[in-house]
Amino acid sequence: MTSPTPLVDASALAVELSSPTPPVLLDIRYRLDAPDGSAAYAAGHLPGAVYVSLDDELAAHGDPGEGRHPLPSAAAFQRAVRRWGIDDGDEVVVYDDWNSFAAARAWWMLTDAGIAARVLDGGLGAWTRSGGALQTGVVTRPAGTATVRPGRRRRLDIDDAAALARDGVLLDARAPERYRGDIEPLDPAAGHIPGARNAPTTANLDSDGRFRPAEALRAAYADLDGLPVGVYCGSGVTAAHAVLALRVAGHDAALYPGSWSQWSNTPGRPVAIGDRP
Question: Which parts of the sequence are annotated with region: Disordered (predicted)?
């Protein structure tokens, strides 16, 4: 089950929150330089929002060969979903204060598991600019009963990614300097998957951190019409953001969760450098 539109704006969300059946709000506060967003959340969040730890609840931790943010098991994700107070049939809205990168990871995982979810377009900033109030402290909802059924969304393993780069379209959502191999601050090798095209997901946003209009995104990705498309990034987080943008543009792109952190940790996988695929 997925919502017909993956985004909701702040004014529409305010109306929904005052309705008899408001959505469940999840605050995915996370940044690369501040992965624990719990203090920022407690200092001010949307009223009723539950804090979600990306590192602890939206990722597993294991061998580096799985990547930096591998997807958790279905059982672990179900425990998290129930902790957030979600029941079967609930609508969920997720947000963050980091250009919706972390929120998009939650959106992908929830909708992949059959839970209707949308992203607050523009995140926390859009809410406060619209005059929305903030609540301080920690919100705890009664435990939910939702059952997760992962597998609704398209995903790639490492061999699928290699094949798609060769036979379809594999997009690299990282910054151009990481794609080219000029720098690599996090993973053991610099460069990109041979055959992958650079499409930084930051280009999908306007100056306020909102997604560009659907018409603009459709025009930007018009050359993908009718082609199989997949996306990767450093660790599978911002790639989910690109999948979300592509969904707005009308494309059902696959996610490579392992992304560059898995590829570069796997012996024998080739590495390309420079501007060209």
Answer: 183-208
| Residues 13-41 pLDDT 10s | 999 999 999 999 999 999 989 999 999 99
Nearest Cα neighbor of 6 from 121, 109, 113, 86 is: 121
Burial of 91 (0-12, 13-18, 19+ CB in 10 A): middle
What domains sit in the chain, N to C, each tagged with a CATH number? Answer: 7-130 (3.40.250.10), 158-265 (3.40.250.10)
Query: Inter-axis angle of helices 238-248 and 101-112, to 10 degrees?
Result: 70
Kindly report, residue by residue over 58-117, the tens digit of the pLDDT.
Answer: 999 878 899 999 999 999 999 999 999 999 999 999 999 999 999 999 999 999 999 999
The closest of 26, 146, 149 to 92, measured between CA atoms, is 26
Amino acid in the structure at residue 66: E
Residue 167 per-residue DSSP state? H
Distances (CA, A) of 256 to 21, 71, 173, 190: 35, 10, 11, 18
Verify whether residue 233 is a known catalytic residue: yes
The active-site residue out of 231, 233, 240, 254 is 233
